[in-house]
């Protein structure tokens, strides 16, 4: 079981398709993240939302478009992807508290294949 | 920016033996060090963490040590079991504005041989 829920678990899409990945958390966390993970590599940060505002965009191509409708939901809209975009897409969240760092909690991910 | 190095990249141990994974970081501002275990096809899962004001932390068969002066931290797994087989990522974290800035190590693939 996980406290960050992602749908769908698997997605196969063509290069002309438009699809969306969805993420939901109910831990009251106010920071939410999208990471991309290739096989045998660590997660790579794509976007960060803090208090529903986009805080970080790690130079991600415009074919990836994030959206944060409210404090519990995070979407990633996909359009005109390339085969090299095939990867595991992980949503994550973390608390924002004063003081030191906090753990980032990952969802189970969406395994994306672009054909 | 922060840089985290992790060694070894692969590690094979016999069941019941101990396993040690080592990481170094570069930014002295990092103050939180989580370890994630990732089984094949699954999400990274937090297994233990340590803050910069603590030198050692233990949870059953897993322990983590931190040498803040040398900027080293290590994961120790004792009495390894086949279910410990996975990829382990260390990370260095600091709170940056409104989010947690996490820098991951490159990962260690641990294989426990029955």
Description:
The complex is a heterodimer of chains A (115) and B (114). Chain A is mainly beta and 115 residues long. Helices cover 0% and strands 56% of the residues of chain A. Chain A is built from no helices and eleven strands. In chain A, strands 2, 4, 5, 6, 9, 10 and 11 form a seven-stranded mixed beta sheet that branches. Chain A has a four-stranded antiparallel beta sheet with strand order 1-3-8-7, with no helix packed on it. In chain A, strand 7 and strand 8 form a beta hairpin. The radius of gyration of chain A is 14 Å and the shape is globular. The model of chain A has no long low-confidence stretch (mean pLDDT 93). Chain B has no helices and eleven strands. In chain B, the strands form two sheets. In chain B, strands 2, 4, 5, 9, 10 and 11 form a six-stranded mixed beta sheet that branches. A five-stranded antiparallel beta sheet of chain B has the order 1-3-8-7-6, with no helix packed on it. Chain B starts with a strand and ends with a strand. The mean pLDDT of chain B is 95. Chain B is mostly beta strands. Helices cover 0% and strands 61% of the residues of chain B. Classes of the chains: A mainly beta (115), B mainly beta (114). At the A-B interface, strand 5 and strand 10 of A face strand 4, strand 5, strand 9 and strand 10 of B.
What structural keywords apply?
heterodimer; A: 115 residues; mainly beta; 7-stranded mixed beta sheet; 4-stranded antiparallel beta sheet; 11 strands; 0% helix; globular; B: 114 residues; 6-stranded mixed beta sheet; 5-stranded antiparallel beta sheet
């Amino acid at each position: 079981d996980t406290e960050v829920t992602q749908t769908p678990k698997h997605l196969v899409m063509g290069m002309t398709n438009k699809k969306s990945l969805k993420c939901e958390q109910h831990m009251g966390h106010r920071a939410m993240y999208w990471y991309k993970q290739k096989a045998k590599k660590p997660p790579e940060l794509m976007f960060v939302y803090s208090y529903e505002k986009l805080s970080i965009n790690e130079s991600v191509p415009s074919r990836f478009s994030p959206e944060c409708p409210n404090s519990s939901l995070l979407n990633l809209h996909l359009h005109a992807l390339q085969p090299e975009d095939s990867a595991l897409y992980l949503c994550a969240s973390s608390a924002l508290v004063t003081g030191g760092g906090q753990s980032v909690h990952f969802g189970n991910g969406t395994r994306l294949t672009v054909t | 920016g922060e840089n985290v190095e992790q060694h070894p990249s692969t590690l094979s141990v016999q069941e019941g033996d101990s396993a040690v994974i080592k990481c170094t970081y570069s930014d002295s501002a990092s103050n939180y060090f989580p370890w994630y275990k990732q089984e094949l096809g699954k999400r990274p899962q937090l297994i233990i963490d340590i803050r910069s004001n603590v030198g050692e932390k233990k949870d059953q068969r897993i322990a983590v040590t931190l040498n803040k002066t040398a900027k080293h931290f290590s994961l120790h797994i004792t009495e390894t079991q086949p279910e410990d087989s996975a990829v382990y990522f260390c990370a260095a974290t600091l709170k940056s504005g409104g989010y947690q800035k996490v820098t991951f190590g490159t990962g260690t693939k641990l294989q426990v041989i029955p």
